Amino acid sequence: MINTAIILAAGCGTRLRPHLASHLPKGALPLQDTPIIETSIQTLLANGITTIYIGTGHGSDWYDALSNQYPGIHCIKNPDFATSGSMHTLAAIIPYINGPILLLESDLIYEKRAISYLYDYPEPNSILATPYYGYGDEVFITVNPQDYLVSMSKKADGDPQLQHVLSGISKCSLDLLHRMATCYQTHATRMVDYETILTESSQHIPIRILNNPEIHVMEVDTPDHYNRALSLYPDIKIRNRCHHHERRYLLNPGPATLSKAVQYAQIVPDICPRETEFTGVVSEIKQHLQTIASHQSDEVTVTLFSGSGTASVESMLSSVIRDTDHVLIINQGAYGERMIQIATIHGLPHTVFSPPPFTAIPYTALDNLLSQGRFTHLALVHHETTTGLLNDLGPISALAQHYQLIVCLDAMSSFGAAPLDMMTDTVHFCAASSNKNIQGTAGIGMVISQKAALAALVNGPKRSLYLDLYSNAHYQIHQFQFTPPVHTLYALREALRELMTEGVSNRYARYRNAWQQLHTHMTTLGFDSLVDSQVHGGLITAYRVPPNSRFSFEDFHDYLYRRHITIYPGKLREHATFRMATIGDLTPTDITHICNEITTYFQKNPL
Ligand code: PLP
Ligand code: MG
Ligand code: MG
User: Fold this and answer.
1) Residue bearing the CA closest to ligand 1, atom 4
2) Which ligand is nearest to the CA of 317?
3) What is the Cα–Cα distance from 85 to 8, expressed in whole angstroms?
4) Which residues does ligand 1 sit against, CB inside 6 Å?
5) Which tens digits make up the pLDDT trace of 12-38?
6) Structure letter (DSSP) for residue 382
7) Domain boundaries, given as residue ranges, for the chain
8) Is the model's pTM score more than 0.85?
9) Closest-approaching ligand to the CA atom of 139
10) Among 547, 554, 538, 568, CA closest to 601
């Protein structure tokens, strides 16, 4: 928890003199009638900072007067400001500090997100960097392959376009501040900048450089800066008002990257979910889901649960299979295993069939097993998210019809993209969730049932109050039996509207193209997929960790994460893998950007 900020404000600001009276400090520079530092103070106070130390020097009286207008501001004067650097000012404040702080220069305009971004990032010592915009007077930052600070300089080390630029906003732990104080004592001169000492201290305490091209920050040192700042400032104010946040690229298998419309759909007036207005939302959601589940949409019905995907799988299996039934569970990975766990916990009579996990189901072997005549139900995962294998429902449907089996399908990571028609594919019950291909937020599990199969459960087993499928399905029309996650449902409705507009087959084509683009790139870099290409769904790929390579998933993950790209660890016991999904609101341009970042990583960290 950071509640303290330090603003270094002792400088004279001589270069700004035409815009700044000579007795005034730089922080007094007016931007839209408010002194530049006052806007900064207001931003800090509005974002969780309660104590601000201002290191003053030139024009200190002006800061003293300002500090009286706000709570929690303390001015500490550096009396030697004319003959010392910014580190001398900081050193005078450090004794007052007893926890982590945000460190800012006094002459910055910035979006408020700059504060929350550093605040939230799980790194105790970090500097917010920006790309090079050619403003002039930049401090360039050189980093190591893990993005830790190596050096800072007024001169670019090579092409400035490829370098990080110091924003003037940093996050420092108390340890780092103490290290800086110690480090400063070894210097013979007082004319030392705080960035020099940060660099020297980083040899003992790593300082991460976080480059966020989407956050506007600008330092105002010169008249030219000032003119640019005046034109940039209105945009910053708009961004602050709009809750604008940066785009993130989620390559984990859901929750997926959302559209802005889905994110904002959650901001709604307070509403009681028992009102007709709200049941209209639920009704629309069910309509869309029925349409996705089968072209004979009147033959299926949708039951929604407040819960993750596992809730819907558990509801389906525990409500459908009676003590006198016997289900054959096809296990091809972690989600097959999850069905076995559910069957075991609820004491469902079951047998497990575990075919090789990376190739198509051996249908002859399955046929032989089913021909024993013991089974009433077949349960399987449509798309095994741990590997990326997509089962062909054609042969399954034929076997189910031949042996008159009720089919329970976990379609969590296929529903809404991969082809599926519950009526023609002989799927009696299908479990899905809001946060994968549907591109909604997490929190809704759904079971879609063939109406006739659901009706047959009238005297079905009752193993759970909350998850019983029949009673939830037959509760009052378009009402949840138990309290629904209201805002999540508004997002789900918006996501389904988007899906209906795009079309399920177009969405699948978009995902597959994204997969093709990324997969080709990964293959060129030397990675290969676990699953045979003929049975790969084109939605998520489990890549083998190349044996005997220097590859570290954690390092790769962290590097991409700092660039707003999230990848996912593997989930297979016998194979070292990691995963990348290409679902969500991603465009070909996004994938190109992701491929470029991946290339840069492997240039710095060869396999
Ligand atoms: N089944 C499959 C195929 C899945 O991919 C997942 C989650 O990724 C689940 C079940 C479980 O869903 P949840 O984690 O939302 O409970
Ligand atoms: Mg400067
Ligand atoms: Mg400056």
Assistant:
1) 412
2) 1
3) 10
4) 253, 308-310, 313, 335, 381, 385, 410, 412-413, 433
5) 888 998 889 999 999 999 999 999 999
6) S
7) 4-245, 260-501, 505-604
8) yes
9) 2
10) 554
Beta carbons within 8 Å of 111's beta carbon, 6+ residues apart: 215, 216, 217, 236, 239, 240, 244
Helices (H), 375-503: 393-403, 451-455, 469-473, 486-502
Q: What is the pLDDT of residue 155?
A: 93
In the reported structure, the alpha carbon of residue 318 is separated from the centroid of ligand 1 by a whole-number distance in angstroms of 17
Pocket test for ligand 1, best of 340, 342, 383, 385 (most atoms within 8 A of CB): 385
Take residue 549 and report the two structure tokens written for it: 């390579």
Q: What is the pLDDT of residues 282-299, one digit of tens each?
A: 999 999 999 999 999 999
Separation of CA 71 and ligand 3 centre (Å): 25
Q: What is the pLDDT of residue 572?
A: 83
Looking at 3.40.50.300, 3.90.1710.10, 3.90.550.10, 3.30.300.180, the CATH number of the domain 4-245 comes to 3.90.550.10
Q: Report the atom number in ligand 1 closest to the C-alpha of 411.
A: 3
CATH architecture of 505-604: Alpha-Beta Complex (3.90)
Whether 244 has a pLDDT exceeding 70, the answer reads: no
- Answer yes or no: are the C-beta atoms of 27 and 106 closer than 8 Å: yes
Q: Are 126 and 171 in contact (CB under 8 A)?
A: yes
* Fold classified for 260-501: Aspartate Aminotransferase; domain 2 (3.40.640)
* Other CB atoms within 10 Å distance of the CB of residue 181: 18
Residue nearest ligand 1's atom 3 by CA: 412
The atom of ligand 1 lying closest to the CA of 433 is 15
- The owner of tokens 């095994």 is 384
pLDDT band at residue 586, thresholds of 50, 70 and 90? very high
DSSP assignment of 301-344 equals: EEEEEES-HHHHHHHHHHHH--TT--EEEE--SHHHHHHHHHHH
Distance from the alpha carbon of residue 412 to the mean position of ligand 1, in angstroms: 6
Distance 141 CA to ligand 3 centre (A): 16
Residue spans of alpha helices (H) in 411-527: 451-455, 469-473, 486-502, 504-524
